Automatic annotation (TrEMBL):
Its EC number is 2.7.7.7. Keywords: Coiled coil, Nucleotidyltransferase, Transferase. This is DNA polymerase-3 subunit delta. Residues 236-263 form a coiled coil. InterPro entries: DNA_Rep/Repair_Clamp_Loader, P-loop_NTPase.
Length: 392
């Protein structure tokens, strides 16, 4: 029987720690924190752990394989009665969302050995919200297991860090991610290797690049726009187009999900898709639409950051060529263009561009309009002004 653990790659030590914990109730810890860089598989590992906990003895070699399979399917669909998940697409996790989870955590599990509560992107909690969670972590019910996910333990307040057992993920290699795409998703090996490399081993993004030609085309446009900047006016025009690319990418990610959610909401209200919504029911749909708008805002912001990460790989490759390092390029598919650009520029300019990207990311996080931050970054990358250094 295929297990949830097989959906992971390059994380043998972390998998072993969680499998051992799930198999030994006496050694079980009731508060966990899974950390690792974006795309390393934090959420996948959390759900694999949840599956093992909820399956209990049925997951063993002598267990009920049919029951284990049903539990795995319920976890995959997020419908298991003893699983609660908080995954936000907003900028922050609200205090009310955490309060609801804390209330759920007090109930005994209904059919499984444990009640499992997963908070993805736990780093999006404010200190006040974190303190609400802290009270639940200090005295968890005996059969409730909390699993938090965050890029780093430092992203959570110290009092929470002191009450969780930390499992750290490493960055998987290009070969490991490519092998996963081939084995799990049936991707052709050469495409899997290119997608894993260009995604910089971010598993979710690698899958998207491998399966979505439009996503690959948008990424290629991003690189070409940056390589084509030769003037201040060119930087301004390129920044506008990069924001448009990020917005397109965000819409592609959210449009299908938004429609599915709306259709499901209409069915739950007893309406067919496309039917006129009675005035008495419009408030329910308006709340969904408000949530979708907040998610769209976050998705565009994440899209801008993906653009900057792709540009970071571009200038990193230029720097490697200019220094004659001999290291593999992230953007091997456009090596010819990169070699031309590397000869036209300098290592100093590439370093300044990398610094400027770091500044742009901080500025956008601080609510600077993305287009202004991108304009400043591209002007520096083109060598038209001194490097921005560590400006706020």
């Amino acid at each position: 029987m295929t297990t949830a653990w097989e959906e992971l790659t390059g994380q043998e030590a972390a998998i072993a720690a969680l499998r051992d914990a799930a198999a030994d109730p006496e050694a079980m810890t009731h508060s966990w924190l899974i950390t690792g860089p974006p795309g390393s598989g934090r959420s996948n590992l959390a759900f694999a752990f949840a599956t093992a906990l909820l399956q209990g003895s049925s997951s063993g070699p002598d267990g009920d394989h049919a029951a284990a399979a049903r539990t795995a399917a319920q976890v995959a669909a997020r419908t298991h009665p003893d699983l609660a998940v908080l995954a936000t697409d907003r900028v922050v996790i609200t205090i009310e969302e955490v309060r609801q989870l804390v209330a759920q955590s007090q109930f005994s599990p209904s059919i499984a050995p444990y009640r499992v509560i997963i908070i993805e992107d736990a780093d999006r909690m404010t200190e006040r919200t974190s303190n609400v969670l802290l009270k639940a972590l200090e005295e968890p019910p005996p059969r409730t297991v909390w699993v938090l996910c965050a890029p780093s333990a430092a992203d959570l307040i110290p009092t929470i860090r002191s009450r969780v057992r930390v499992v750290r993920l490493r960055v998987p290699s290009v070969a490991e991610v490519a092998e996963l795409l081939v084995r799990r998703d049936g991707i052709e090996p050469a495409l899997a290797e290119r997608a894993a490399r260009e995604a910089q081993t971010h598993i979710g993004m690698a899958l998207r690049l491998a399966t979505d030609p439009e996503a690959r085309e948008r990424r290629a446009r991003t690189l070409q726009l940056a390589l084509g900047v030769q003037s201040v006016s060119g930087a301004v025009a390129a920044a506008e187009q990069l924001v448009a690319i990020a917005t397109e990418d965000a819409k592609a990610l959210t449009a299908e999900r938004d429609e599915e959610e709306r259709s499901a909401a209409l069915r739950s209200l007893g309406l067919e898709p496309g039917a006129t919504v009675p005035p008495a029911l419009r408030a329910s749909l308006r709340a969904l639409e408000d949530d979708q708008k907040r998610r769209a805002t976050r998705s565009v912001r994440d899209g801008i950051d993906r653009v900057l990460v792709d540009l970071m790989s571009l200038y990193r490759d230029l720097l490697m060529l200019q220094l004659g390092s001999g290291l593999e390029l992230v953007n091997e598919a456009v090596r010819g263009d990169l070699e031309l650009a590397s000869r036209a520029g300098s290592a100093e300019r590439s370093l300044a561009a990398l610094d400027a990207i770091a500044v742009a990311r901080r500025r956008i996080e601080g609510n600077t309009p993305p287009q202004l931050a991108l304009e400043a970054m591209l002007i520096t990358a083109a060598g038209r002004v001194p490097a921005l250094g560590s400006a706020p």
